[in-house]
Request: fold
Amino acid sequence: MTRWALRTTVRTLGTVAPERTSQWAERLFFTPRRTQPSRTARAVLEPGQQRFLELCGEQVAVWSWGEGPRVLLVHGWSGYGGQLTAFVAPLVAAGFSVVTFDAPGHGLSSGKFSSLPELARVIRAVARATGGPHALVAHSLGAAASAVAIRDGLSVERAVLVAPPSDPRKAVAFFAKWLGLPQGALARTVERIEARVGKLEDFVVPSFAPALKTPVRIFHDAGDAEVRLESGEAIARAWPGAALVRTQGLGHHRILYTPAVVSEAVAFIRESRPQNAWPLWAAAATEPLSPQPLL
Reply:
């Protein structure tokens, strides 16, 4: 079915049967797409120590590398832990151990449905089960969920957020527009979503960020078509002491594999401990990026 045909069908059904349409839309909203790891990601995941942990009622696939203070890598919606594997080797070389995982409903983990607050709970559960992270690096929805996890008690010395969305209400609005949900069906869908996860306004990151104390570095591309730069800017303005690094031409995903971004993120995490506590680390050849002041 083409998108035009889907939108036409949804508009029709949403008008004549808004309750049934909202039930279907709610399930679709909470259903991530399982993405297959790339060849590059598999090459890093395979030598890692893999295990399954029973967390939050699901079997969660977890990988780890190295020794030393832990850095937790958190993927986004319809992603997988291997999407952040460009950070593994530099972090291990810097004297850290690294942990990543597939969230429920993603990758190799069990489950079918997920959401921002459910991902936040899994982040905290993985953190507890793996000894507690020193720092974390999180992408997209995983970045917003990490902020919620920090708000709810996760303790880390440093946080790196890549392309973080700021407001789940915007995601719902985009979802409704993409599907062509009529207003009545949309209102019922929002009611169903909030019945499951709570009030969406409770997860607007700039609303609770002023109370957060964790030093944070935010990376966001000016041309990100999936999560607009304005989201990263809003979070950076609200989070005390936050620094925002704007990039150009990297989009929503390539930013995760760009040496300058990885180098800057690892350097930021290393700053949280005395220099003599770490082995020598060969920095990436690419010049590090610099935080830019907010307008």
Remarks:
- DSSP finds eleven helices and eight strands in the chain.
- The first strand starts at residue 49 and ends at 55.
- The domain at 31-167+204-277 is CATH 3.40.50.1820 (Rossmann fold).
